[in-house]
Amino acid sequence: MTAPLTPPHQPPSDDPWQATPSGSHAAPGGQEPLHGTDLVADVRRAAVVTGLLTVAGVALGLLWLWLAPRVPLVSDDTAVFLKNSESEEAIGADGTFVLLALAFGLVSAAAVFLFRRSGGIALVVSLALGGLLGSLLAWGIGTWFGPTSDVVAHAKEVGKGVTFDAPLELHAVGAGMLAWPVAAMAVHLGLTALFGPRDPEPEWEDGYGTDWPAAGPASGPAPGSAGGQWPDGGTTEGPKQS
User: Fold this and answer.
1) Domain of 84?
2) Is the pLDDT reported for residue 238 higher than 70?
3) Number of domains into which the chain is organized
4) Can you tell me the mean pLDDT for 129-136?
């Protein structure tokens, strides 16, 4: 009788470089491969979010126009002066825009998270881009529908000594444009980290893919005892009685 050429329990190969079967492509991390339809759906959702946030910039611009403090000016037929030289209305206009933009960023991030809890790079990019475009649109609406920027003509129109409003301006342009997108990305990432779906825990197995036998005493007599059998096939007998 000859020994079998292959062991009866051969462990499976754990070679990570082993070629995958023909026609299949394994995704990293054991996840399903990303199909083209999923990518198109993500891009479509991101485009919708960007468009909605851009349109929401109209509301931000109207709120800024309504809530921002006015800077009073007065003319004496030769020049235009601030009615109150120690007034802080100009700084208040910038602060109002930034606070409103932060609030819009928080609300938009929460709405996008409820719309798509799994998140994704496309949604984060759409939040940033939509917030930036919405801020630009709000800035334009506030300055366009606010008091005229032609201060000299406005002063001549109202007359000498009559108080009128200065044009609505945004001096801290960088802070105003970045407040919405930065707040939206930060809040969305925080919500995803706290309440987003979790990946399933991996199931640990032994290296050979089989369960180990339960620990216990070995069956059969031990080698060297009475009636025992050595691994080379020989037998031993117990100590002879004299």
Assistant:
1) 37-195
2) no
3) 1
4) 97
